[in-house]
Design a protein that fits this description.
Blueprint lengths: L1 H17 L4 H10 L2 H13 L3 H25 L4 H8 L25 H25 L2 H24 L5 H19 L8 H4 L2 H17 L6 H9 L12 H21 L8 H20 L7 H36 L1
Helix pairs in contact: 1-5, 2-7, 3-4, 3-13, 3-14, 4-6, 4-8, 4-10, 4-12, 6-7, 6-8, 7-8, 10-12, 12-14, 13-14
GO cellular component, one term: endoplasmic reticulum membrane
EC number: 3.1.3.9
Pathway: Carbohydrate biosynthesis; gluconeogenesis
């Protein structure tokens, strides 16, 4: 794999050279591809456009990120920002590369989680939009346009991950292909009108991941090897964030799935609202999620951080599917009476 990694490093160097001065653009793109964006940004936007697609999106986001974590634990992928130093293959000519605030992720590198979750989540969006456009217009050209956007988005997110030294090119390609396949498969199994017990299976996902983790440790495999390397080679210690650890991803996914089940349990089918109340619900939900996301969590003890992180993502579907639309529905209903 050394030759593949070396080529990936030179590709990253050329990208940074040619895109000098565009760092903010590529950091914005990599934030758009962050799995958190699927839960906090894309989910409310899609849900208030199409409830079924919104539920499918949350479902696919959680499962694709969970599978990404399992793949990472099994594949032991390196990340460029630490491999360059660890490999000791660049002593004669060290590449001219820079790290960024989003570079220092602590999980293994293969496959790319940003590319995988982006490919899975946005497949749900563009395939639904493409079908809707064709049903309304019968225009093949118009219905294909979302898929062109999808391709551009995947390429952009992948380039951003290579640019900031978070991934090698082959990890981006693997993540994009795997995410696309997962999006196609999982979209056909949207959990609508399921009993709450079905969503309690989120604890099964948590238990499965923890069992795999424990099993690898019993085999003498240190599953936290990547965290030590990230801490060693990150150029700025403050860029190491606890919410980028593999266990944070796991608690986010399990929390979101449980929250989805609770939301459908409290209000099966949601509320039927015209476009204006939906737009208001979207705006209020986005504001609510922004403030929930910005809430500072204590990083010590870590068990408390992960518990609160889990609760935070349980709340995401409650805010979007129950609390905000419920309040808007109640307010608009009273306005109609008067």
């Amino acid at each position: 794999m050394d030759s593949v990694h070396i080529q990936g490093v030179w590709i990253a160097e050329r990208l940074q050279e040619r895109m000098k001065g565009q760092e903010n653009l590529w950091l914005a793109v990599t934030h758009l591809g962050d799995p958190k964006a699927a839960f906090l940004l894309v989910f409310p936007l899609v849900y208030f456009t199409s409830k079924r697609t919104g539920v499918a999106l949350l479902w696919v986001a959680a499962f694709s990120e969970w599978f990404n974590l399992i793949f990472k634990w099994l594949l032991f992928g390196e990340r460029p920002f630490w491999w360059i130093g660890e490999s000791r293959l660049f002593l004669d000519r060290e590449p001219n590369l820079h790290q960024f605030p989003s570079t220092c992720e602590t999980g293994p590198g293969s496959p790319s989680g940003h590319s995988m979750v982006t490919a899975a989540v946005w497949w749900v969006v563009v395939s639904s939009l493409g079908s809707y456009l064709y049903s309304q217009t019968r225009s093949v050209v118009l219905s294909v346009s979302p898929y062109l956007f999808y391709l551009v988005l995947l390429i952009s997110v992948g380039l951003s991950r290579i640019f900031i030294l978070a991934h090698f090119p082959h990890q981006v390609v693997a993540g994009s292909i795997t995410g696309f396949l997962m999006g196609v498969v999982l979209q056909r199994r949207v959990p609508e009108q399921r009993p709450l017990l079905f969503f309690m299976a989120s604890f099964g996902l948590l238990l499965t991941a923890l069992t795999l983790n424990a099993g690898l440790r019993l085999l003498g495999i240190d599953v936290s090897w990547s965290i030590a390397l990230a801490n060693k080679w990150c150029s700025r210690p403050e860029w190491i964030r606890l919410d980028s650890t593999p266990f944070s991803s796991l608690t986010r996914d399990c929390g979101a799935l449980l929250g989805l089940g609770l939301a459908q349990y409290w209000r099966p089918g949601g509320w039927s609202m015209p476009w204006a109340p939906r737009a208001l619900s979207l705006a209020l939900s986005s504001m609510g999620l922004y403030h929930v996301h910005r809430l500072p969590l204590p990083v010590q003890p870590q068990s408390l951080f992960y518990t609160l992180f889990f609760i935070k993502f349980v709340m995401v579907p409650q805010i979007v599917m129950v609390l905000v639309p419920g309040l808007v529905h109640m307010f608009t209903h009273k306005m109609k009476k008067h």
